[in-house]
Amino acid sequence: MNVARIILGVLLVSLPAVGAVHGEEDQPAEASWQAPEPSAVRELAMRWLAEQKADAAVVEKAKTLWPPEAESAEATQLLARLGVTFALVDPRARALVERCARPSGRPDREATAWLLDETVPPVTPNLRLLYARWLLHGELFDEAHEYLAGLATEDVVDPASLLFCQGVVAHQLLHREEGLKALDTLLARSDKAPRRYLALARLMREELDGLKEDSLDHIARRMGDIRRRLDLGRAGPKVRKIEDGVIESLDKLIKKLEEQQKKSQCAGSNSIQSSSPAPDSRILGGRGPGEVTQKKLGSKSGWGDLPPKQREAALQQIGREFPSHYRDVIEQYFRKLATEEEQER
User: Fold this and answer.
1) Do residues 84 and 49 touch, judged by C-beta distance below 8 A?
2) CA distance 147 to 249
């Protein structure tokens, strides 16, 4: 299952949630966060306009964004309306909201750096969340992580979206502990979070909880992250570092499998015993321990340059020990790297 694609589909949903799940297994005695009432969000927006000394025409326009029916709106809608309200007065907020209204695009670090300024008004965390959601649509997880870092549920009007986005980023960047913390906090209020968030939060949590360092699943996930970065046109030092880490992990995994195979062969050889000396003319049975050729998956000085014969031997070794789809992932990965290296020459 491609959880990442499903997650992005959920983030693109603009319709109200179909409901909330009341699961006692996710509900602790004391929940750690609470979504604000729509009336409180409206009051926040109007108070901020007064502090900005907005003229009467702007205030009247803002009031149309908060009609009586807004009292029943879900938090994601309140966040969007709050962003539009800020845009009525603040040119930077207006540019940000206009950017987030586009389906995709490249991030502009210079134009959005003000969001990280500690001296900006307290409404800024909501704009950071709004922008981070947009970044996630383009699979820009590193950038989204920067704008979500340090935000707490009490800082925003949509704490469920904050926790879900933080969980998505951690899940995609393989930040296990950070992701488990965000997802557990989200699941703690299953009565307040949208059903679409809860279903995927459980899946992401299960994947992160079972993720082991240097396991084949961990390696495959890091390969997928490298492919994503390369698709975004990024091939700098950070990507190189991840690539080197993948190679080292594959080396460790192959070496471990070979040692296990060698021990198995030795155990089979030692189990063959004879009660009397063998006649000179008799051919003895059994198998010797043999020698296993060490396989090297590339090197730090030549990424992806594993000779085809050795590469196939490594893939066969992995195919014997693990499900076939892991072999497919690694094989596609090497093929993609070989193509990119050929284009660079």
Assistant:
1) no
2) 30
pLDDT given for residue 292 in this prediction: 43
pLDDT digits (tens, 9 = 90+) for 151-206: 999 999 999 999 999 999 999 999 999 999 999 999 999 888 888 899 999 999 99
Q: CB under 8 Å to 200, separation ≥6 — which residues? A: 3, 6, 7, 10, 164
Q: What is the pTM of this model?
A: 0.68
One-letter identity of residue 333: Y
Domain map (residue ranges) of the chain: 3-209, 216-267+303-344
The SS3 assignment for 271 reads coil
End-to-end CA distance of the chain: 36
Amino acid at 179: G
H helices present in 138-175, as ranges: 141-148, 159-173
Backbone angles phi, psi at 152, to 5 degrees: -115, 160
Cα 160 to Cα 127: distance, rounded to the nearest angstrom: 15
